[in-house]
């Protein structure tokens, strides 16, 4: 009996020793992992930070590239465009007014917070007001005003037209995956193909990439307007372009 108890005691001590050895090894490995992780952590944080900055820069560059070079779109003469718009039945796609390029979009998941976005500059706010005043002076009837949820678009719509119906189908699409980009493109095609309420024009306020994907037209510069005519069969026709200054110039001469 004593021999058996001695055997069990020895076995228990051996098992306990083995467990202590395993724990010591595991703890040592854990500490080495922690030290290694702490060494890697600053680098990982730097990578994530740089990735965010690169994405912001890419978005800004894509938007800025749309302003480079001459505008190659063609269409009706400004006076003819105004007469068409006065009769109603068109969609006018505005790129938002001039923005403050020192700002960037840093939080696309919370578009209700204007402090994390590139917003209208003071010149841009003045542009939006001037566009609205000129359109009213030209007696161009306005129906729906639909805008991207970004603050620069909402502000452009409110300052120009005094109202804004937000549609996430007009949100900034640069940087999105191919599937969502295609979705935004088709959504805009649908909007441009939808006739306005009779005797009015629908105003859309959005960004560069959206119109490029849907029509092949880069809207430039900020504040430019592109006019489309809805046709049967869920299609539309591009009619022409009006620059920021064209509205005020036409209001002063017509």
Order of helices and strands: HHEHEHEHEHEEH
CATH superfamily: Phosphoglycerate mutase-like
Shape designation: elongated
Mean pLDDT: 83
Q: Give the strand line-up of the largest sheet.
A: 3-2-4-1-5-6
Low-confidence blocks of residues: 1-5, 44-58, 68-72
Distance between the amino and carboxyl termini: 118 Å
What is the CATH C-level name?
Answer: Alpha Beta
Q: Which strand-content bin applies to the residues?
A: 5-15%
Helix content: 40-55%
**How many separate domains make up the residues?**
1
- Largest sheet: number of strands, sense, barrel closure: 6 strands, mixed
The CATH topology assignment is Rossmann fold
- Total helix count? 7
CA gyration radius, whole angstroms: 30 Å
Label the structural class: alpha/beta
- The beta-strand count equals 6
Architecture per CATH nomenclature, i.e. the level-2 architecture: 3-Layer(aba) Sandwich
Could you characterize what this model shows?
The chain is of the alpha/beta class and 254 residues long. The chain has one domain (66-253): 3-Layer(aba) Sandwich (Rossmann fold), CATH 3.40.50.1240. It has helices at 2-65, 78-87, 122-137, 151-161, 178-192, 208-215, 244-253, and strands at residues 91-95, 142-147, 165-166, 201-206, 225-231, 235-242. The protein has a six-stranded mixed beta sheet with strand order 3-2-4-1-5-6.
Name the descriptors:
254 residues; alpha/beta; Rossmann fold; six-stranded mixed sheet; 7 helices; disordered N terminus
């Amino acid at each position: 009996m004593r021999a058996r108890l001695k055997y069990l005691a020895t076995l228990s001590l051996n098992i306990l020793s083995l467990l202590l050895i395993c724990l010591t090894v595991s703890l040592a490995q854990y500490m080495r992992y922690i030290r290694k992780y702490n060494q890697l952590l600053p680098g990982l944080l730097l990578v994530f930070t740089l990735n965010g900055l690169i994405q912001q820069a890419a978005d800004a560059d894509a938007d800025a590239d749309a302003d480079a070079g001459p505008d190659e779109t063609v269409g009706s003469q400004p006076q003819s465009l105004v007469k068409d718009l006065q009769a109603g039945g068109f969609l006018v796609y505005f790129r938002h007014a001039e923005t403050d390029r020192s700002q960037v979009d840093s939080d696309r998941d919370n578009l209700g917070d204007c402090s994390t976005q590139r917003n209208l500059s003071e010149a841009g706010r003045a542009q939006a007001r001037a566009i609205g005043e000129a359109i009213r002076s030209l007696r161009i009837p306005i129906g729906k005003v639909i805008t991207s949820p970004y603050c620069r678009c909402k502000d452009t719509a409110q300052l120009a037209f005094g109202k804004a119906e937000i549609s996430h189908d007009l949100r900034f699409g640069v940087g999105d995956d191919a599937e969502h980009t295609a979705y935004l493109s088709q959504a805009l095609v649908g909007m441009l193909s939808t006739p306005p309420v009779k005797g009015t024009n629908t105003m859309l306020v959005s960004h560069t990439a959206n119109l490029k994907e849907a029509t092949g037209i880069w809207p430039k510069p900020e504040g430019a307007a592109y006019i489309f005519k809805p046709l049967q069969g869920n299609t539309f026709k591009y009619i022409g372009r009006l620059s920021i200054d064209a509205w005020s110039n036409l209001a002063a001469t017509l």
